Amino acid sequence: MIFNQRVVQPSAKFAQQANLNKEHHSKLLHSALDNYEKHWAELAQKHIHWKKTFTIPMKWNPPFVEWFVDGELNISEQCLDRHLNGSVANKTALIWEGEPCNGLEPLERKILSYHELHAEVCAFAEGLVRLGVRRGDRVALYMPMIPEAVVAMLACARIGATHTVVFGGFSAESLCDRILDAQAKCVITANGGFRRGKILSLKQAVDKAVAECPCVENVVVVDRLGETGSGNYPKSTTSFSPTQMLTGRDRWYHDVRVAGSSHAAESLPAEHPLFILYTSGTTGKPKGVVHGTAGYALWTNLTCQWVFDIKPDDVYWCTADIGWVTGHSYVVYGPLSTGATVYMYEGAPDFPDFGRFWRCIEREKISIFYTAPTAIRAFMRQGEHWPAKSNLSTLRLLGSVGEPINPEAWEWYHSVIGQSQCPIVDTWWQTETGGVMMSPLPGLTPLKPGSATRPLPGIAVDVVDDAGSPVAKGNRGKLVITKPWPSQLRTVHGDPERYAKTYWSTFAGPAGMQKEPYYFTGDGAFKDHDGDIWVIGRVDDVINVAGHRIGTMEVESALVDHHCVAESAVVGIPDALKGTAVYAFVTLKNEVKQAPDWNDERKHALARELITHVGGIIGSFAKPDHIRFTDSLPKTRSGKIMRRLLRDVATGHESLGDTTTLEDVSVLATLRQSSDDE
Ligand code: WT7
């Protein structure tokens, strides 16, 4: 990677009208340095709609933190009720467009004002309570991108139930694991969702998962396909089999909601767990990242004001699915808490053609657009003529998230989509951080294509060496956060030791410069000569495939789960479109290789079978791009698989580096001879 090729100076015009001006920005930087607790306490007083105000700003008992400890609030009031007395009440909160059953335009469209969204949330909150869902319970969501998904999240928050949203691309098995880990009492889903002209069979997956989950008492089903005639959607002309509703367990969403209810929001402690979101780590088992309420509410709100510069007239579109943290923080909680108009689209960017997103931007006059580098690269590959067909002049700010953006994609995004008029906020953050930690501030920070530049005011980020000392400018190191922050994860659900070990043991302090433990991000980074930070990518066994975070161990266990596989090792290799592709080395059981029908044809068929198998266990997005059969895997004397070596072999690099710790050097030769089978 070449750093610092180009600097784009901020536009004075943008700076004049930005929510955060130079003076305000430097005041914030100073107040955070001056008195960290007071800094956050003042922001929390000002930007949170408290039901009961707090007196204790923070309790830091490393590695556990609590913020605004004795305060009480409800984030659904922060996002809805507090807007209802003023001009925002009748403003559009949500513009939703769905893929119609024929895939063509016009799209299915629904508009909800703040007033209407509030009414819908109250109706469903009351319905959930009547089903027996209580404060402290867990509710799992497995839904398409439809307004009811937003309503369900806010309704859970309103009654104090902790939601866990599982991305609709996960398999029934992954869904089952998450429901069980969270011990969810209720699952909310839909009888379908449209994507690329096909119906996602979400309810079937829920049935399969819930059969193994005794904790689930109820399944609530949105009638997205219009099969009952009493729901909110027209009947699908794409054929589908009738939904099987299990008596006593399953209910239609439209029967559960209690129209006209004004269900009062629970007054919840600041630290009440708002949601659990499962994310991949370095072991096979995903972690349930737990977020609290007040600190999360504060930071998602502030970042929407500062980074996305959301103003009353904006129409804001974040393309993330609500199944990921970006959807939680920047489709739902952050923008709604600022009273923004949020655009939400159900389908895929490339269906029926690569013009769909740009037509949405023109039609809805989108002014702020936030997406992932992998999508930008896919658009770029299709050519400028697609965006050129639409009028994109309403755009004033662009955002990027999920992985490092390569300078080439940045330039294309800037000139073709932003017509060189829009700042790009390259936002670095993680599921665990709750909100954006590093990003240029629009109108203030000089932009460097490929760099998330600096931490936001109040956020203490650094690049350190293995001893925890900050690296000098011009050097690489590990990315850490040196102080607890309001929207940080509180724990790993049911496993506080794993929380402490994963995030706080690498730089445990006190040592060298370190007085306190540092939060380790798992990312490597470069600090340039101006002190700006360039996130390079993960330094642990996590890979980022098309913006999706995948643990190499998860893919390995899915492969080993197949009856033909003895052992496997998975590495990420650079990929022009996805950023990283999944490359799996597989050793087969002897009986497979010794079978009389074992030939090239069978080998190819097995490779395809393994790919499908991983899709079935984790979800399609985790399918290996390459499978390579090998007789053995290179291991160190202590039995650790040498991934660096495998990466070199996978990318075809001649130099295999230092192999002195290899237990059996001969396996290397075998590896290099074996051919790529898929
Ligand atoms: C990992 C977190 C944050 C929401 C989406 C992903 C990588 C994220 C950037 C960026 C370079 C980035 C990091 C991080 N990442 N944003 N702007 N530049 N890398 O959330 O699934 O928790 O993944 O995504 O490697 O650790 P996530």
Strand order of the largest sheet: 6-5-18-17-19-20-21
Share in β-strands: 15-25%
Q: Using the 3D structure, state the CATH architecture of the largest domain.
A: 3-Layer(aba) Sandwich
Query: What is the CATH class designation of the largest domain?
Result: Alpha Beta
Total helical elements: 21
CATH topology of the largest domain: Rossmann fold
The major sheet is characterized as:
7 strands, mixed
Helix content: 25-40%
Q: What's the N-to-C terminus distance?
A: 28 Å
Arithmetic mean pLDDT: 94
Number of domains: 3
Give a count of the beta strands, DSSP E runs of length 2 or more.
31
Outline, from the CA principal axes? Answer: globular
- Low-pLDDT runs: 654-660
